[in-house]
Amino acid sequence: MKRIRKSVLSFLMVMAIVLSLTGCNSLDDAVEKAKPSIPKGYTLVHIEQVSDNSGIVFYTHKDELSTGMFIKNTFGWDWIGSGIGKLVTYPEGLQWRYADLVDKDKKTYSLYYGKVINKDIQRVTVTTTNGKTVEGKIVDTDQLRLWYAFVSGPQVPSVNADIIGYSKDDKVIYLFSQPKE
């Protein structure tokens, strides 16, 4: 009996050490821990918990917008990577970019994100390269209006998606659509 208790106690101590060294307990802690992964000059703009098990962060640098993603597992929040680069700025009103973020288990998270420039845009949709329409989420921050939409799988080429911004009365006031073959 003593031997079992000692084994259980040893196991619990090892688990406590492992848990303290991996992941983070809160999304805010994870964002702080991931700072070395963010390129110099970028400023944190917003943290958004997307679901119980995922969260994204937005960073800016001059006119660029970057996003990073976290996934929660048994051990806490883990950084899975970021999308960095120039935004598509034409036509005016909405800016966007696309990123595929891949976790340790090789699961891909495909994401459109960007800035809402036209204050009249109240809703954004993305129709993917395979024809599925996804509702984006608009996020108001102190500095910017941001938007993002997770889509079901890699988009190749990403510019073949249709991105639409709607007014409050559901009129199309932004349309990015490339000619399809």
Summarize the structure in words.
By secondary structure, the protein is of the alpha+beta class. It has one domain (26-176). The chain has helices at 2-21, 27-34, and strands at residues 43-51, 54-61, 64-73, 76-83, 94-102, 108-116, 123-127, 133-135, 137-140, 145-151, 162-166, 172-176. The strands form 3 sheets. A 4-stranded antiparallel sheet has the order 1-2-3-4, covered by helices on one side. Strand 9 (137-140) and strand 10 (145-151) form a beta hairpin. The longest helix is centred in the N-terminal third of the chain and has 20 residues, at 2-21. The chain is globular, with a radius of gyration of 20 Å. The termini are far apart.
Search tags:
single chain; 181 residues; alpha+beta; 4-stranded antiparallel sheet; 12 strands; globular
What is the radius of gyration? 20 Å
| Total beta strand runs | 12
Question: Strand-and-helix sequence, N→C?
Answer: HHEEEEEEEEEEEE
Q: Structural class, from helix and strand content?
A: alpha+beta
- Largest sheet entry: 4 strands, antiparallel
Low-confidence stretches: 5-21
Overall shape: globular
What's the multimeric state?
Answer: single chain
Q: Give the fraction of residues assigned to helices.
A: 10-25%
Q: Compute the separation of the termini in Å.
A: 73 Å
Relative strand content: over 45%
As laid out across the biggest beta sheet, the strand order is 1-2-3-4
> How many helices?
2
Number of domains: 1
If you average the pLDDT, what whole number results?
A: 83
